[in-house]
Amino acid sequence: FPLFGRKAVVGGMSAGAIGQFFASPTDLVKVQMQMEGKRKLEGKPLRFRGVHHAFVKILSEGGIRGLWAGWVPNVQRAALVNMGDLTTYDSVKHFLLLNTPLVDNSVTHSVASCCSGLVAAVLGTPADVVKTRIMNQPRDEHGRGLLYKSSMDCLIQTVKGEGFISLYKGFIPTWMRMAPWSLVFWLTYEQIRRICGISSF
């Protein structure tokens, strides 16, 4: 079994990118509403009264385009996370089955899923930092960002101004979120696969 097989890479990236593109407006609202607490602590007025109000306000200020603000780094992040999760799980699982006494059971699945969660966090955190900054930046009346021109511009400015390590701000909580998700997902997947009599990918 080739490490990081092409099918796993392409499949993981495509599924993550397509899914996140359609979910981007809801992610935008989530990110902006998470910043409301910080605004309150800084003595700034709150922008939203709730989820519905957030959607309406973003739509009225930026139009349909405004709802997809930051979709590029959002899609990039999802593609990297899915690629890392899928390819790492598949590769580690097959490696363990071929090179260790472990068999195809929950122990093997747990080890592989822990590794996949770590790799997904390593690959996804920089894109998550860029995505969050782009989604939270102030915008002009046309919905264009005032701080960053693109995800690449945000990446370059962040590294120049704060150093490379700044791209991994929030890595620990990201990993703490991804690790249990990956564990539950893959263990559930394997059990459903076994019950349905479907062969592993």
From TrEMBL:
<keyword id="KW-0999">Mitochondrion inner membrane</keyword>
<keyword id="KW-0677">Repeat</keyword>
<comment type="similarity">
    <text>Belongs to the mitochondrial carrier (TC 2.A.29) family.</text>
</comment>
<feature type="repeat" description="Solcar">
    <location>
        <begin position="104"/>
        <end position="195"/>
    </location>
</feature>
<dbReference type="Pfam" id="PF00153">
    <property type="entry name" value="Mito_carr"/>
</dbReference>
<feature type="repeat" description="Solcar">
    <location>
        <begin position="3"/>
        <end position="95"/>
    </location>
</feature>
<dbReference type="InterPro" id="IPR050391">
    <property type="entry name" value="Mito_Metabolite_Transporter"/>
</dbReference>
<keyword id="KW-0496">Mitochondrion</keyword>
<dbReference type="GO" id="GO:0005743">
    <property type="term" value="C:mitochondrial inner membrane"/>
</dbReference>
<keyword id="KW-1133">Transmembrane helix</keyword>
<dbReference type="InterPro" id="IPR018108">
    <property type="entry name" value="MCP_transmembrane"/>
</dbReference>
<keyword id="KW-0812">Transmembrane</keyword>
<dbReference type="InterPro" id="IPR023395">
    <property type="entry name" value="MCP_dom_sf"/>
</dbReference>
<protein>
    <submittedName>
        <fullName>UCP4 protein</fullName>
    </submittedName>
</protein>
<keyword id="KW-0472">Membrane</keyword>
<keyword id="KW-0813">Transport</keyword>
